[in-house]
Design goal:
By secondary structure, this protein is mostly helical. It has 5 helices and no strands. The longest helix is centred in the N-terminal third of the chain and has 34 residues, at 19-52.
Length: 150
């Protein structure tokens, strides 16, 4: 069985699920996509701070935007691909806007945890990721990938 056939079968199965089960499946898929994006985000952040001496807030922004591009590509391909209701340009703009709000949350959290509480950058990234993950998943699902968004 090819990957394409397997993906189509998984999507058909997702469509038959009840709304709460769909939410759970989407959350798991988005979690996997976000893990990949986090790898890009945190890797970029730590690389820029540790090896290039870039300010942690600037590096956090660059890392976040790199992760945003990663999660967008994975989300439209694997997470929400059967529930897309907006035109691709609207969807990308919405992803960017929710991402910018996520970036504001990231900046505020990193500034608070590193600047005010003195945590190391890598340690501060952990709680930041949790808050921003939930915000991004819920806002994108409700605003971009639901029938109400159309």
């Amino acid at each position: 069985m090819t990957l394409s056939v397997t993906l189509r079968a998984a999507l058909a199965e997702r469509r038959s699920l009840q709304p709460l089960a769909r939410l759970f499946v989407d959350l798991l898929r988005y979690g996997a996509a976000s893990a990949a994006a986090l790898t890009v985000d945190a890797g970029t952040l730590l690389l820029l701070v540790s090896f290039f001496g870039v300010n942690y807030l600037v590096a956090a922004s660059i890392g976040f935007l790199s992760g945003l591009a990663t999660v967008y590509a994975l989300s439209v391909r694997y997470v929400y691909d059967d529930s897309r209701v907006l035109r691709p340009a609207q969807e990308a703009a919405g992803f960017l806007v929710t991402g910018l709000f996520g970036l504001i949350l990231t900046q505020a959290s990193m500034a608070l945890l590193v600047g005010a509480f003195g945590l190391q950058v890598g340690v501060a990234k952990l709680p930041t990721v949790s808050v921003v993950f939930l915000f991004n998943f819920l806002s994108r699902r409700m605003l971009l990938f639901s029938r109400a968004a159309g």
